[in-house]
Design brief:
Blueprint: E1 9-20, E2 23-34, E3 38-42, H1 49-56, E4 64-69, E5 72-74, H2 79-84, E6 87-90, H3 102-106, H4 121-134, H5 150-162, E7 168-172, H6 180-195, E8 199-203, H7 207-213, E9 216-221, E10 224-229, H8 236-244, E11 262-271, E12 275-283, E13 287-291, H9 298-305, E14 313-318, E15 321-323, H10 328-333, E16 336-339, H11 343-346, H12 354-359, E17 368-369, E18 372-373, H13 375-388, H14 405-417, E19 423-427, H15 435-450, E20 454-458, H16 462-468, E21 471-476, E22 479-485, H17 491-499
Parallel strand pairs: 3-8, 3-9, 6-7, 7-8, 13-20, 13-21, 16-19, 19-20
Antiparallel strand pairs: 1-2, 1-4, 4-5, 9-10, 11-12, 11-14, 14-15, 17-18, 21-22
Length: about 500
């Protein structure tokens, strides 16, 4: 069957439906993508965006409806099948093999073979270097993926998808782990792909990106198409209204700090090859933002504070007492909690339920009596936390791997809050989270700080750092280059300190 192939339409999604146990993910959704265009999909976490993309990429089969590629019926049985049709996907949750090299990840199952029938590692390296140079990505082809920061892994994922020279690229939150500079780099690549006539389906929760890179926009809510248009005809407010179907809580740049006593003090902390001579103080009722480019040492510092890695030298005090935090258990006992930036690799237990992911942090203390877990109390606390954070799940027994990335992020935050921390370390807490959930998380952070919690906030989004921080510590290449008071900070000063 041919239909619409001559009107510039590359892909047409017609009346697609998809249901999973306990939830309708897509209900009669239709979308069109033209050649040489970027069509953005927006919506809250759980709206069905990623499910639709996975159907187009061959991960899922639709329950009803159909796909047309270049006017022809398209029936996909697997992601490999989709690649054969020129459809490649960059997943929100990275699908790389950590103990293999960058080159091996990019060309897996397509490795160059020498005359003896063995993999030619020289040619593999040459091809990878040529691809990365063409994309202006500065990463060692022989580096093991597990040694790379999350942002660099995201660029490897992007390079792998582009290596297929596909006609249709699906990008699911491609900038969620990228700083401003890397995001601008990606947008330049996208513009080049558009000029080559390729079509791009683009999911993002960063609304400013829609106006920068998209040609068309479709909004999904609760699995249904609710509206769309072009960036020229839509306002940010109109998009948000379509996304959430309700009034958002007001934006929550935090109020003035009500600083109490120093809860956390670091003195000359050093971890060789990652950060050196880091000193700062964090007060009760204060948010200290940490800004910096990829590789600045922010995440390694957070992990060291929570006992995930040791330090080579330096001292750490909590309250008025010097302590040694050498494990997460030790950190929790001292009142610390940590939300990791990589929910898939080091946050969620993907095969376990929402309840199990939440309760794992509180199977002690008030929830244990005479050596027995107070099951009802734990369940009630977890249910209340899901309600507070608006986690979209059929029930608490749903495997967390079935939830959208943003809802997984909410569960991670909820797990930390159940421990009632005095000091909360948040590494990219709104990564992959929709605009409504981001506002709710900001409101929650503001409330916690108002109650005396101390927050260490790492974010690659400068508006978030500027809006939510009382003070901002900037890092570059593992060193602190400055600490700015909120009143004196702006994006130019932060970038000067981060890139000087």
């Amino acid at each position: 069957m041919r239909d619409g192939a001559g009107d510039g339409c590359l892909l047409e999604v017609r009346n697609v439906c998809k249901a999973f146990p306990g939830v309708v993910a897509l209900d009669d959704v239709s979308v069109r993508l033209g050649r040489g265009t970027v069509h953005a999909l927006s919506g809250e976490n759980g709206a069905g965006k990623s499910t639709l993309m996975k159907i187009i990429a061959g991960v899922y089969a639709p329950d009803a409806g159909k796909l047309l590629l270049n006017g022809r019926d398209l029936r996909l049985g697997s992601p490999r099948h989709a690649l054969n049709f020129g459809i490649a996907m960059i997943h929100q949750e990275l699908n790389l093999m950590p103990y293999m090299s960058v080159a091996e990840n990019i060309w897996i199952r397509r490795e160059p073979i020498n005359a003896l029938g063995l993999i030619s590692h020289r040619e593999l390296k040459r091809r990878t270097r040529a691809l990365l140079e063409r994309l202006r990505i500065d990463i060692d082809p022989e580096a093991e993926v597990r040694t790379l920061p999350v942002a660099a892994r995201q660029m490897v994922e992007i390079a792998r998808a582009l290596s297929y020279e596909s006609q249709l690229l699906i990008m699911d939150e491609p900038t969620s782990a990228l700083g401003e500079r890397d995001a601008d780099h990606l947008f330049a690549i996208i513009r080049e792909l558009k000029a080559q006539g390729k079509g791009i389906l683009y999911i993002t929760h960063r609304l400013e990106e829609l106006f920068e890179i998209a040609d068309e926009l479709s909004v999904l809510r609760d699995g249904r198409y609710v509206g769309g248009g072009t960036p020229a005809t839509l306002t940010r407010e109109a998009i948000v209204r379509m996304m959430v179907g309700r009034e958002l809580p007001p934006a929550a740049p935090v109020g003035e700090a009500q600083r109490g006593a120093v809860l956390l003090a670091a003195r000359h902390l050093t971890l060789e090859r990652h950060f050196r001579d880091v000193s700062f103080e964090l007060h009760a009722g204060e948010i200290l933002g940490i800004a910096g480019l990829v590789g600045s040492g922010r995440t390694r510092l957070a992990e060291a504070l929570f006992g995930l890695t040791g330090v080579s030298s330096g001292r750490l005090s909590i309250g008025d007492r010097e302590v040694k935090v050498d494990s997460p258990q030790s950190a929790i006992s001292h009142g610390l909690a940590f939300v990791t930036e990589d929910r898939k690799e080091s946050g969620c237990f993907l095969t376990l339920s929402v309840l199990e992911n939440l309760e794992i942090s509180v199977l002690h203390g008030d929830f244990v009596r005479f050596g027995f877990v107070r099951t009802r109390a734990v369940s009630e606390a977890c249910t209340a936390m899901c309600a507070l954070l608006r986690v979209k799940t059929p029930d608490l027994h749903e495997p967390i791997g079935n939830l959208s990335g943003g809802n997984q992020q909410k569960v991670l935050i909820g797990r930390c809050l159940l421990t009632r921390p005095k000091i909360l370390i948040l590494d990219e807490p709104t990564r992959g989270v929709d605009v409504a959930a981001k506002a709710e998380i900001h409101q929650l952070i503001s409330r916690l700080v108002g109650e005396g919690t101390a927050v260490l906030l790492i974010s690659s989004e400068l508006p978030e750092i500027l809006g939510m921080s009382h003070r901002i510590m900037v890092m570059r290449e593992g060193r602190v280059t400055g600490i700015l008071e909120r009143a004196e900070a702006d994006q130019v000063k932060i970038m000067d300190l981060a890139a000087a």
